[in-house]
Amino acid sequence: MAGFFSRAMATVERDEAPANAPLVPIDATDAVRRVELLDSFENAGLGWFWATDAQGRLIYLSPNAAEKLGWEHEGTLGRPLTDLFIPDEDGDPDRAERPLAFLLSARNSISQLHVRLATEKQVVWWEIAGKPQFDSRQRFTGYRGSAKDITASRETQLDAERLAQYDSLTGLANRHRMTKRLSATLKAYRNSKRSCALLMLDLDRFKQVNDTLGHPAGDELLKQVAARLERIVGSKGEIGRLGGDEFQVMLPDMDDRGILGDLGQRVIQMISQPYSVNGSRAIIGTSVGIAIAPYDGLDTEELVKAADLALYAAKGGGRGQYRFYSSDLKDGAKHRRQVEEDLRDAIDKGELAMHYQPIVCAKTHEVKCMEALMRWEHPERGNISPGVFIPVAEEMGFIKRLGDWALLEVCRQAVDWPVDLRVAVNVSAVQFAHDDFAQFVERALNQSGLAPDRLELEITESVFLGDTGRAQTMFKDLKSLGVRLALDDFGTGYSSLSYLSQAPFDKIKIDQSFVRGATEKGNNNAAIMSAIVSLAEALDMETVTEGVETKDELRLVTERGTSHIQGFIFSRAMGNDDVIDRLEKGELKFTARGPAKYRADRKTVFRRIGLIHEDFRYRVVMRNLSKTGAAIEGLLDVPVGTQIVLDLGGGQLAVAVVRRSNSYSQGVEFETALISNGADGLCTRHRVSPYDIEAAGRPLSSLPQDPYALMAGGQTGAAGRRKFVEVDINNPR
Description:
733 residues, alpha+beta, Beta-Lactamase, TIM Barrel, six-stranded antiparallel β-sheet, 23 helices
């Protein structure tokens, strides 16, 4: 079939022009040669032409275009143009284009519009252009346009865009895409009054994998971590790798901290399971920080900063934990930086000291060993918990120096004890990883004069990371010195029976997490303890159950057959002078002192909170707090059954009913149980929404410490008759 332009004209045949023929340019009036030019362009497939009538029906399409698409040319003519093309509705929203149907109906010019052909067997993209045509009386007669195939170039462009937005190693979104997606989501959700949660996490001990197994193994591990995260999160959100071992998870329409806490815990548990990497076994962990928009931040920068602070707090709490953001974390981050600065000089200034907690025989309650525990008495801030400064030391690369100092100090002190008790010293994975560790232990023994069989080295399973052959060599070197070895924190997530069959341990320490709740009905921890004890006995190893605090726990672990017990039920850690004083007096037996029963969820507190009843807000003191209720003081004679709301701060309102009342003291039961905040505290599942504060006439912002007062406009209890009388309780903090 002749081309669109040539069909109305006769083809002029010409003999081949001689070499010296004169130049004959194509004039605008030379219709024949102009049509030939367009036909050659069309037939070469460089582009095609199309035309419609005034009703939008196709009256021309380049024949070779229809042939390439597998369309019957005659059957295509007469169809509406819009039936042939599908607009690009899945493209970048920042480059959103007017739909083709709109442009045609408005009789607008079409320029570089990307459309997908309505083909079933192949994906074809065209870039089309066209202009509306009018006759001499300015009546619309249809469109005349052109098209070109951009399928290949579009795929190349999309590949480039994917590379720019996704991490090449894991296939997850990269930092650029996550920032862009989070910004767009928060902007849209602010208008529609919706929430969005953000999880920040990084990997614990990942550097050891790179250092021990090499960077290719580290890359493989990151791929496996990404795959595990995708299985956990699924379609609920988007996961990104920000770089290195940092990951981010965005969860739209999520503000329930109970669900988020459970998700954070599942992430920690899943990531902490062992990995097989290039034939080696690798063990890592993770910490998670959680922030929620609009509560903790309105824009990307504010929300990311909040999640970062929560992650910082999770790592500072001992790693392998999650934390929700709260406004007081800003002070915590500042304090942590100060701890880092002061810790460098703590040894030289004599601020660190070793304390000792007894490990007693389960049958006789006589002390058999002392575990050395480091304490830091800061001259200005007082006692700083090891749970605070040990993670900081690990992060700043200071843990080896602390560990070496502790080992030397313990050997020096223990040799002067009046009784030849064993002393246990914790060994970090960083210390153990140094090739000269056995020589250092030998030097500490020689310098102090401590008998080798009195020194017990407590080692966690993380020392098996990577090169197990090297670990076995180190164990052999240590045992040749005559020291004892204990496997610490057994059963906390990385346990492998192969360790016990290969490593020459003298003792297994059962982690205190198996003691907590073991006495409660339906708890499986007691059965797990029995299994560990049986295993240790079969391997001719001692067992120590850690963290025993109450008499029912003591009775349980004794019945389960543990050979040794450690915990507050017998003694807290004591200074070296106190140890010497007790041993000189021959006081080797410890008496069990502690509560009769373990109470899982009740925590002693002492702080002022708000209590809301009807239109009044009172100030009361909360004495203790559990998931299901609290004890408060400060209001006289509140009737049992009174409905109240406790304002726990930071937008946390807990609906409750008074179940016990005596003078100015009440016990209340919550309508909805509290949840763990990821640390040692409790929090509400939901908080006062910033959108509700905005609806009360205040500017939209993240939650202040006292949002209820903003909503009430400072008018709570300003008028009317109060039902209860406030009582001042000893001016609590």
